[in-house]
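Q:
My hope is that you can spare some time for a protein that puzzles me. I hope you can help me see how the letters and the tokens relate. Thank you; the sequence and its tokens follow:
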Amino acid sequence: MSLEPDNKINQLITQWPSNAIYLTSWLAKEGYSAQLLNRYKQSNWIASIGHGAVMKTGDQASLEGALFTIQKQGKQQIHPGGKTALNLLGRAHYLEFSTKNYTLFGIESEKLPSWFLKYNWKTSINYYSTSFLPSNIGLVNYETNGFSIKISGAVRAMLECFYLAPKNQDLQECYELMEGLNNLRPQPVQQLLEVCTSIKVKRLFLYTAEKIGHAWMDFIDIDKIDLGSGKRQIVKNGVYIPKYKITVPSTFENG
């Protein structure tokens, strides 16, 4: 191998974060041709984890490492959300968190790449593409293994939980997750509720926060939040809440 390829692989490996995955299309734009990447594979510097994606030999592919490349190199908005984001933020430590499920959200036009879908992550990936929240608001940086990815902040993650409820997220668990959010800042709560387009989500969020008695609710201007009209039956045989026009589990009122 010539000196130039030696220098290029040294530079590449030195800058490559642990457990991060790189796209071959991105590497090509950075000057790493398919021929050169094949030589690196043959020399056991890098290994393929699927069509169009590689990682450093010896690393362990991680979901966060995959999302690093999806976000930074693939330029997609796909991110950990809902209960997964709350767990990563340390907001779900009082609940038993199942590593068998990993929740991702993205905008309606985005799909998970084939290399990601075909790889065995040893967990169930639940991906939801939706536009009930703008894609560029309510996200925070999550640092791991020398790189960062965007994940839902606590407010957005809680709204995502209610978006999935009750079909794909247990409402009682949503209530318990909301109980732990006693120190939210009112400004991002107000901002996200104003831009959220799901009437169900907004009503459930406000009802549970008020029911629990979070102090930050005193600073939320509900008049600026569109709560729509008409009743919403969230569950059957529940208790009707006139203020928010929703039917909730009886345990919320009688528990």
Q: What stands out?
A: The radius of gyration is 22 Å. DSSP finds eleven helices and eleven strands in the chain. The CA atoms of residues 47 and 220 lie 51 Å apart. The mean pLDDT is 92.
